[in-house]
Amino acid sequence: MKSQRRVVVTGMGIVSPLGNSVEAAFARLRTFENCVQALPELEEYRGLNTRLGCRTAFEKPAHWTRKTTRTMGVVSMYALAATEQALAQAGLDDATLQNGRTGVAYGSCSGSIPPLLDFYAMLKTKEVAGITSGTYIKLMPQTTACNLSVHFKTHNFTFGGVNTSAAPSIPASARAPRSAEDIVAAFGFVTCVPSVVSAKPASSARIRVRPARAVRSPSAVPPNSSAGACRTS
Residues 129-169: pLDDT tens digits? Predict the structure, then answer.
């Protein structure tokens, strides 16, 4: 029986309220530093019980051009920034990414919210003025996988996991390198950015002031977008 080849993670990246680098995010996790805060702007939403959330401080890198981001909403931008970090740490160059043996597996809960609102606004306004050629690409659930594949010019599989973010894309990233030699997979996830979840039986409008130190384990704090580069050995 042929033994399975090992799959090794060789690079990591992250864009998150905890920090926009692996080092910054892990530094906050080790000190249990909490990034949850009260968001006064949520007061205007009737029936929304929660007033808490996290903000991600993110600016587009200077080397990104308009062509780079014309089909990207914030979800894909976070994914690209995290993936660039992972690829740099892994030492993967353009030749490797475009060798025909490299693929992308990237999961996201949904596309970006603003283009989604632009698209479905036509149901009320009966106009399509806010819809452009890139609107659907920005809002579709596979937006991260498709944008990354086009940006890095990969020519192998492109897997866009949906629903539970990284759950489908991580095993896909592990399986794929075993089917071909030296194939590299970039994977990651996005957690509904921006979105608000308000379950009336489970949330409360009351806010109690707590110290900045988190009261739960650091693993309970989810990142907005993370990425890894993996390959066989």
Answer: 888 889 999 998 888 888 998 999 987 767 665 555 556 66
Mean pLDDT of the chain: 76
What pLDDT score does 212 carry?
Answer: 54
Write the pLDDT tens digit of every residue in 63-77.
999 999 999 998 899
Query: Given this model, what pLDDT does residue 193 score?
Result: 40
User: Would you list the DSSP string of the chain?
Assistant: -PPPPPEEEEEEEEEBTTBSSHHHHHHHHHTTB---EE-GGGGGSTT----EE--------TT--HHHHTT--HHHHHHHHHHHHHHHHHT--HHHHTSSSEEEE---SS--HHHHHHHHTHHHH---TT--TTHHHHHSTTHHHHHHHHHHT--S-EE---SSTHHHHHHHHHHGGGGSTT-EEEEEEE--SS-----TTT--S------SB-SS-GGGS--SEEEEEEEE-
pTM recorded for the entire structure: 0.78
